[in-house]
Amino acid sequence: MSKLKELISLGAGHVRSANVEDYQALGGYKALEKAMGMGPKEIIAEVLEAKLLGRGGAAYPAGKKWAQLLDIPENPKYIVCNADEGEPGTFKDKLILDKVPLRLIEGMTIAAYVFSAQKGYIYVRGEYRAIQKRMVKALQSAREHNLLGESILGSNFSFDIEIVSGAGAYVCGENSALLNSTQGTVGRPRIKPPHLAEVGLFLKPTLVNNVESFSCIPSIVLMGGKEFLSLGHPESGGTKLICLSGHSMRPGIYEVPLGKISLREAIFDPELGGGVKGGRFKFAHLGGQSGPIVSEKGLDITYSYTDLRKNGLSVGSGAIVVLNDSVSVLEYLKSVIQFFIHESCGKCVPCREGGKRVLRYLLMLSEGKMGQREIQDLKRLLNVMRRASFCGLGQSVPVALLSAFKEFPECLIKKGSFAA
Amino acid sequence: MPELDEKKVLSILESYGKDPQQLINVLLDIQEASGRNFVSSSWSKLTSKVLKVPLTRIYEILTFYSMFSTTPRGRYVVEVCQSGPCRFTGSEELVSWLEEALKLKVGETSEDGLFTLSRTSCVGACSSSPTVKIGDEVFGGLLRDSALELLKSFRDDNRAAREKFLCPS
To answer: B168: which residues sit within 8 A by CB, 6+ positions away?
Structure first.
């Protein structure tokens, strides 16, 4: 039996992306019709039952987020899609944005119906400028079919979506920074609380979900939360788009049911990653630069939010960067830290200064100059960054390092003296 | 490409309804229309005046987001991805081939104003690593010969010749 499952990627590459008829031929927009015959609470109950965890990286339960927003009486409410996909090794949102944008648009329209929102934004990273232009056509096609705009499907529900462009800033993937950027200012994060559900875009209640999360909504409405859940893991329903890259034999995007395959299968199965090129498997980096590193020892863990978390790992964005044994762990970590130094927005000291200091320690490590005291200092520094950084960017800098130190203590001892 | 004039800048501002919320889009369009991939101080001042936003806010945006430049760059900015998946599948070799072919170091612009060589964070085409972004397009899986062929296609303004290097999305 195939390990792949087409749900959110259904039609990708086979339909004209900006053509409503093509999308409808796949069952598109049936979910919106169904949803408009349901009550907001009823729809949210399905999303809760589906146990849809946020697909952007933080894995926050979408149903819970929706229920919290529904409890807030203030209006208007805004629906915002985070399409800033900047985690290195992640390119799955691009597939949806470029090939099946109408599924995302339908998902956002259902959300808008739930919250009686009239305006939505899709914040697309500046690097996808060519795709943004094609998405404008998809929105136009939806408007022409009365599936977006005034009086949708002849009802008194009106909703429209605008595309907003980023301009090259990883930190804008953080939801509050993304909202600041959507407002036309620099994308630095905000202090929380208040949460975005209460004080979001233009200081109004706002729902922010990832591209893939919104794209799951039509399936959940159509098949029901229970069936969606059964497709995946008992604690996290549905499928996940995974992105294989690096030394993967078959790099690309694969849609897999959550909890039904192991990491080893994801990387080695001939239908999926197909193994490692240029050498033997050494490690994989999961979920982007902010995610953990896993060695051979962890490969038999089931690919699900629950199982990975239990083992100190995470799904994150769905990225799986495969590295062979020609790669030095230390060199890899240096590139991770260089990325964070470049992308730090500069707002808070732990992240802005911490990254540079961590890099200095890594350089000392490769020169074999790390003593006991420096090791303790590095550990303390990582702890400060994790606990005191303003937003998720700085907080997640230590993740790759600490997991690598755990998985490869011998690598680090050989070069330096990280024996402690 | 004809040089950007005031009329063109005003028409860009007009096309976004002179809405300050659209500042990033406006500045991206001005940069693209400049022909030299930058936003000059005079266009920043004009934007500030028309949108009624402080000039400092415009400079804050231009210096915060990495896609912007306030100094002229090449007509084509050749940006090599330096994030993990590309970095460990040959992006450094790609940089050295491009440096050799363009006779430039990273950060420099060719004398004819055609190319600037630079690095970028992940461009989201990791399955085709190592990748290079030029304008709105991303090209992948480049070796020494194909990198040269790609540059030639830009020199010759020959779109068809570079299509085979485009990354699938």
So the answer is: B127, B128
The complex's ipTM works out to: 0.96
Last residue of a domain, one of A261, A289, A324: A324
Query: What element of type H or E holds A239?
Result: strand A239-246
**Distance of alpha carbon A65 from alpha carbon A95, whole angstroms:** 25
pLDDT in tens, A312-368: 999 999 999 999 999 999 999 999 999 999 999 999 999 999 999 999 999 998 888
A4 occurs within a structural domain: no
Asked if A162 and A252 sit in the same domain, the reply is no
Q: Find how far residue B52's CA is from the centre of its chain.
A: 27
Residue by residue, pLDDT tens for chain B (169 residues) are 557 899 999 999 999 999 999 999 999 999 999 999 999 999 999 999 999 999 999 999 999 999 999 999 999 999 999 999 999 999 999 999 999 999 999 999 999 999 999 999 999 999 999 999 999 999 998 999 999 999 999 999 999 999 999 998 6
Strand blocks (E) in A293-381:
293-295, 319-324
Across the interface, of A91, A164, A187, the residue whose CB is closest to B124 is A91
- Does A310 share its domain with A337? no
- Residues from chain B that touch A170, judged by Cβ atoms under 8 A, are 121
Grouping H, G, I as helix, E, B as strand and the rest as coil, residue B137 is: strand
CA A256, distance to chain mean position in Å, is 15
Mutation target among A17, A90, A91 for the B interface, most CBs of B within 10 A = A91
Q: Which domain holds residue A273?
A: 239-324
Partner-chain residue, chosen from B24, B57, B126, that has the shortest CB–CB distance to A251:
B126
Q: Which chain A residues contact residue B66 at CB under 8 A?
A: 167-169
Nearest CA in chain A to B63: A186
In degrees, rounded to 5, the angle at the alpha carbon of residue A59 between the alpha carbons of residues A57 and A65 is 120
Q: Does some domain include residue A416?
A: no
The distance of A192 to chain B (nearest Cα, Å) reads 22
State whether A47 and A157 are in the same domain.
yes
Who among A130, A165, A243 is closest to B126 (CB)?
A243
Q: Evaluate whether A385 touches A395 at the Cβ level (below 8 Å).
A: yes
Interchain contact, A131 vs B169, CB within 8 Å: yes
Give chain A positions within 8 Å (CB) of B39. none
Say if residue A267 is in the same domain as residue A387: no
Output the pLDDT for position A14. Answer: 92
Candidates B32, B65, B139, partner chain A, best to mutate (most A CBs within 10 A): B65
What is the CATH classification number for the domain harbouring A90? 3.40.50.11540
Residues of chain A positioned with their CB less than 8 A from the CB of B133: 127
A274 and A146 both lie in a single domain: no
